[in-house]
Design brief:
- By secondary structure, the protein is an alpha+beta fold.
- It is built from 13 helices and 37 strands.
- An eight-stranded mixed β-sheet has the order 2-1-7-8-14-13-10-11, with no helix packed on it. A seven-stranded mixed beta barrel has the order 15-16-17-18-21-23-22. Strands 27-28-26-29-30 form a five-stranded antiparallel β-sheet.
Length: 618
């Protein structure tokens, strides 16, 4: 939907947002929220409020406590004179903390920003009605008429957003009210009481409706991140900010960032203040700008162009080290990857990923020139280098290709593959469950588990890592620059009062903001020094990469025997002449496998030299 249409919607009559809905000639703030009206004590017979705007934006009411919320820009200095647009029936006076509203000038003086204020409406005969009034610097999101129990199926609701021009980043205030659907999302929503939600703004037919929210992309799909187990309430957004500052779009087009942006918001759910969230974009085909699948107008045949896979959990295939040949490829999920795009029913493109893994699985044993040529042909290596440095700088322990998208813009043009991290809560010294990670520098998972990455570290490509780090360590990842980002988010959340409200509503993972800021800054200071030292000491000698051990293969007396030096891990797959898998074993060091007499083809993969060989069992 265009901004012009939104400007039209904003001009509609009825401008007090009450639990996300509009008030129009109702008893004072007596609204219906999820079929439950405000308590009778908050209403006065014969009176109503049809408009209450402060500085041009409608107030929002918590229907449970009767508290009014109003968002104001951080640039206001207090005491401040605020503009008030008030339209009532039966009331002729309004005060805030005793300061009277002047109808002639529509002005109201407020002495302070923080804390809870008292807004009082009065009638000509001296009757009064008082409410708590809270100011915030954050945008306010209201989700109303949602079911009492929200599950993973889309359910209809109403979505409202109120934000200052400062929050919107586009010089326009946002006062948006739309139909929508809501569902819970994310693994953490199954275990934590505060849920993350997927919001889809839609029309009356529940077809997606694009809306530009908070200066972000114009789209209908949005995420409300709960931040429940993050002590800082900023790790995900801080990580995204750093990644985008470090790694812009591989197509050099600001319209298609290689990641997502978001804004902190306060959420009211079904008329009750629910918590501090991040409203963010989604990583998807539209965000990354990859090409749509093309359909032939005459035949209906589909031509695959853009592809995007998402890493769901750790596995050999996620590490790009190998895969199970026998695994089904006619499903949306394959060996811990999921196919995010193409999204047409029945169109599966795992063969592209299998061919990529066929190369990366050999990274440790290829000649350097072959490895370099193959890597440059297949991957955007600037993106790969940036990913490795990002993982180390932020200690993203849950993002070593898990929680990462692997995409290409157009396979018809042989465009290169690139990575996009997401779900960045396990960063800056904590695990995803909030425990301190105790990990600094170059964790083994990055240099050991992924053969492709390990070869980069121990080859002349390490010079590119060093050179790029030398650029970033004095700019994006300079300790003062990182600390400034951390402190700016903490200041915003604390000064707005949202941190205190979150701590009262969801206390388990919400302590003192200053304590977590100190933890993150101390962790980063140590991590920075260790990364700098470790990168400086990386060898670029081609010979420094030890060759993968060669397996010893023997057959006798109806048995196949395989052995490798030490406790080297490997996978043995045995095929019959038709290509059918007869057996598969994963082990370390050695194994003996009885087989029926006949001809076979065996393949060995893993930490050994990739081997394919015909054998005869007698």
């Amino acid at each position: 939907m265009s901004k012009a249409i939104h400007r039209y919607l904003r001009a509609l009559s009825g401008t007090l947002l009450a639990a996300g809905g509009l008030l129009s000639s109702l008893p004072a703030f007596s609204i219906t929220a999820n079929n439950a009206s405000l308590p009778p004590s908050l209403t006065t017979e014969g009176t109503s409020v049809t408009t209450l705007k402060i500085n041009g934006l409608p107030c929002v009411v918590d229907a449970v406590s009767g508290t009014l919320f109003c968002t104001l820009p951080t640039t206001l200095n207090f005491p401040a004179t605020l503009s008030v647009d008030l339209s009532t029936t039966g009331f002729d006076g309004l005060t805030v903390d005793g300061n009277a509203y002047a109808p002639a000038t529509q002005a109201l003086t407020v002495d302070r920003f923080d804390g809870t204020h008292t807004l009082t409406l009065s009638t000509a005969d001296g009757e009064t009605l008082s409410y708590a009034l809270v100011f915030t610097h954050l945008p306010i999101v209201c989700v109303d008429q949602a079911p009492t129990t929200i599950d993973r199926d889309k359910r209809p609701c109403k979505f409202s957003l109120v934000a200052t021009a400062e929050s919107a980043f586009d010089n326009e205030q946002d006062d948006i009210r739309e139909r929508a659907t809501i569902k819970i999302r994310g693994a953490s929503s199954t275990v934590y009481p505060k849920k993350s939600y997927g919001i889809e703004i839609c029309d009356e037919n529940e077809d997606e409706l694009d809306c530009p929210l908070l200066g972000l992309r114009e789209d209908g799909d949005w995420i409300l991140e709960a931040l429940y187990s993050d002590y800082s309430k900023m790790r995900k957004q801080l990580g995204f900010d750093l990644w985008l500052a470090q790694c812009p779009s591989p197509v050099d087009d600001a319209k298609y960032p290689n990641g997502i942006r978001g804004r902190h918001v306060e959420v009211l759910l079904n008329g009750r203040w629910h918590g501090l969230y991040i409203l963010s974009e989604k990583v998807d085909r539209k965000q990354l700008g990859i090409k749509k699948t093309k359909e032939d107008d005459a035949t209906g045949a589909l031509t695959v162009r853009g592809i995007s896979f998402k890493g769901e959990s750790f596995s050999d295939a996620i590490f790009l080290n190998g895969y199970d040949d026998a695994a089904r490829t006619d499903t949306i999920e394959w060996q811990a990857w999921s196919q995010d795009y193409p999204d047409e029913d029945g169109l599966y493109v795992w063969n592209y990923l299998k061919r990529l893994i066929d190369f990366t699985a050999q990274a440790a044993v290829l000649d350097y020139e072959d490895f370099l040529r193959g890597a440059e042909e297949r991957f955007d290596m600037d993106n790969v280098v940036d990913l490795l440095l990002f993982l180390q700088a932020t200690n993203a322990t849950d993002n070593c290709l898990k929680n990462t998208f692997l995409s290409t813009y157009n396979v018809q043009e042989q465009s290169k593959w690139f990575f996009t991290p997401w779900d960045l809560d396990a960063t800056f010294g904590r695990m995803s469950d909030s425990r301190p990670s105790g990990v600094y520098g170059l964790p083994e998972v990055y240099t050991g588990a992924v053969k492709f990455f390990r070869r980069i570290y121990h080859s002349p490509l390490a010079d590119r890592l060093k050179a790029r780090w030398d650029e970033l360590k004095t700019t994006v990842y300079a300790p003062d620059a990182v600390n400034a980002r951390i402190e700016a988010y903490a200041d915003l959340l604390v000064s707005s009062g949202a941190w205190a409200r979150e701590r009262q509503r969801w206390p388990q993972f919400c302590g003192e903001a200053s304590d977590e800021v100190a933890f993150m800054e101390e962790w980063y200071a140590t991590n920075y020094v260790k990364i700098d030292s470790a990168l400086a000491s990386l060898t670029t000698d081609i010979r420094a990469v030890p060759a993968a051990p060669e397996p010893a293969i023997a057959t006798s007396d109806g048995q196949l025997s395989v052995s490798v030096p030490g406790r080297t891990a490997f996978t043995l797959t045995v095929y019959d002449p038709s290509g059918r898998t007869v057996a598969r074993r994963k082990t370390k060091g050695a194994l003996t496998l009885p087989l029926t007499p006949g001809a076979y083809v065996i393949r060995l993969t893993g930490e050994v030299a990739d081997t394919k060989q015909k054998i005869i069992i007698r």
